[in-house]
Amino acid sequence: MKDWGKLLILMTLLLSLPACTNAPNGEKVGATTPSTEDLPLVEVAVARTGSLGGEPEYVGTTLPLQEATIRVQVAGQLKSLAADVGDQVKEGQPLASVDTNVLMAELDRAQGELAARQTDVTRAQNQSSNAQGNLEEQRIDLQAAQVEADRIQQLEAQGAVSSQEAERARRMLKQAEQAFKSPEKHVQVEARALEVAQTRVATQRTLVVQERERIASTTLVAPISGTVMERGSAPGSLLRPGDMILKLGDFSKVKVLAQVSELTLPKIRIGQAVQLNLDAFLSEQLTGTVSRISPATDPKARLVPVEVMMANPQGKIGSGLLARVRFTKPSEKVIVPLEVVQEKAGVSPTVLVVTESSTVVVRPVKLGARAEGQVEVLSGLQPGESFIVRSGQPMKEGDRVRFALPEGTEEQKASSQNLDDAPRVSNRKGQTD
Question: Looking at the whole model, is its pTM more than 0.70?
Fold first, then answer.
């Protein structure tokens, strides 16, 4: 019994002594692992791709692919209107009509005048025909007198007739010649009268055609397919030629007209892809294509009008919206806050990366452009990796950490207070404050 008592006391003493042998990693055998609550608290962020936003942004206004204004061509009262603002219309669809009572009366009057002038032409044709017949009779008489005068002259030369008889034949020829001149002039006068009458008929026929066209123009149809953007008149209104009835816009595509600096012009070409944002649809990233570059630059502002075409399949983009245009697509690189980078003269910049096992890795990185407190990481940090933004104490390779708790908990409020009192990861000398 005494031996068992001594053995029990010896075992108790052995168990109460700390181990003296070191583990392969330098840790003492029997040492306990620190609990999670004892690990340093850090705030981390996930590496994302983006751009520093260095490219200029221009403001433009949305416009329909094409516009068409429907105006009345004749004076009258607007009889009907089949579309209003916001309605969809098809090309050739009747949209409005003007009362035709006055125009029909004017057409009847023009047709009556045409019939009267056609009667004048018929009368002139008859008179011209009579004058031409009289002229032919006088020509026959003149030819007969000429033949008789020639015969008498030959007989006189032979001495077969007296000189008195020859003189009488010559006198008869002269009288026939004088009688022929009068109907000849009359024929010319009648021909001229016929020509004038025919011209008046042609003019009046043109007026009749114009009156018919005016009546046809009282029915107004859509020149394009699109949406009614504006209404200028209401049924019952008295209109004058040129008054606007409706304004249509084709929104199958939308144009954005932007005033671009002449310094950016060398970077722009027809067909170039463009990034657009509309204030009306802030959550959507839109794309378009440069469709036109004006050859005329504003000599005062040094701005060039550039037209960008963009698709509008749902027709939700209207006219007059504010558009923000970027003509060069920024390169997508990993972007991190500049303050998380540890920089030291003669040494590559580093970022404190946290692995999936919550272990700190000091990662060398290659930096790019810097702007507005941010920097591009060209290599060394991949999208999706976590890096330390703030920590309660200096961190080194191999340290294990715990992350800040979700917002709203009491523990998170306490840890946030500790982090607020803690410095950022580094300063520009690469040392933790």
Answer: no
